[in-house]
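[agent] plan:
  1. take the single chain provided in the ticket
  2. run structure prediction with default settings
  3. attach structure tokens to the ticket
  4. add a short note for the reviewer (M.T.)
[agent] executing step 1
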Amino acid sequence: MLFYWGYRLPQSDIRPEFFATVASWCFRAVGVMVGILVFIGLVAHLNDPAHNFLILPALAAVAGVGAGRHEARAKTRTYTLEQRNQELQQTQSELEETVTRLEESEQRYRTLAENFPNGAVGLLDDELRYTLVAGQGFEKVDLSAADLHGERVQDIYSDDILQVIEPNYRTTLDGEPTKFEQEIQGRTFEFRTHPLTDEDGDVYAILAMTQDITERKQYEAKLEQLVADLEESNERLEQFAYAASHDLQEPLRMVSTYLQLIERRYGDELDEEGEELFEYAVDGAERMRSMIDGLLQYSRIETMGDEFEPVDLDAVFDDVSEDLRMKIEDSGAEITVDRLPRVIGDENQLRQVFQNLLSNAIKFSGEEPPRIQVSAERNGEEWIVSVADQGIGIDPDDHEQIFEVFEGLHGGEDYAGTGIGLAVCNRIIERHDGEIWVESEPGEGSTFSFTLPAVTESAP
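[agent] step 2 finished; step 3 output follows
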């Protein structure tokens, strides 16, 4: 029996640390019985002392095991109760901490919601009932947070408003955030909704943030109107510039024709002063023709430009160099050029930019033969193209002025011009969403730089 109980003991509900209790009871019972038998043997006569000495301790051992198992089970139950009590206390402590955190979180949320500027924050359950509403967006409408709290949207808003709000809220309950605008009581509100999910990913509520954007919409409308007015004004100015420059060509042709007639009929009769005055008149007519042509070109940059496409600036530069070949050879100009990139733009207009900048670099080279360096550098999503010379330079005070219409680089007869070439370059680069600038000091040459959008990898 002892061996059997010893074998079954690990399979019982008694915890291992209390097995010693069972063994202790067993040994104590045997010891007590042995003691009793010894006492009886000393004071009384036994018929069969050996037989009684074996049987009675065995019975005592069995009784000890039974008593030990009972006490071990009691200790096990006590231990289990203590463990469960500790677990319950730990769980209670964690619950209290969780409740505290939730209360703090709710307080922060309420504080945030109540101070939500120019709008409101709300929570809606799966029945589209407001369970929490707060914010500062109720000042200009005949509604309050108390009017919404605990109410379903179907019971608050009119049918025309519900036609917009309810489908978006239903979409959010399906797990998709939404953004929409709705006019309420003459005010425009922007709604942003987000689904709130549980651990299983099921949507149990909607977080709705609403903001009064009436003033912003009014400002945007005014800004759009202003942009439209500016575009219309620019279009009228372009039309006026085109018409004015076009209409000026006819009287200018008459002036040129009469000057030619005067030269043919009376050229031999003019004295030295008359010839000088006549040359001034011819030069003035020629300058006027160049200015009109420049004004026409300037006015057509936006309206007559081609579609943007990938442009190989190496090919553009080669074409410009060929067009200016006579001027380059006559001036003895030395032009070095790095490998130029492909950009997005209007090829014809970019050819005009290179032609104007190279012509100026040759024209304002001073007494030495022109030395010109053309280079390009990548800067993120754009290229910086530079045309540097070693010419006479430009005063820093004139760096902004030279890009305006009819503001020439330099005055005087040695550098006569229309003063519109750089203005055309500036307008073309602006059309390409780029910038153009100059770095220069008098007597130290000039470097004109402009930016152009780079060709992306997907472009052909």
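[agent] step 4 note for reviewer: Confidence is low (pLDDT under 50) at residues 410-416.
[agent] ticket updated
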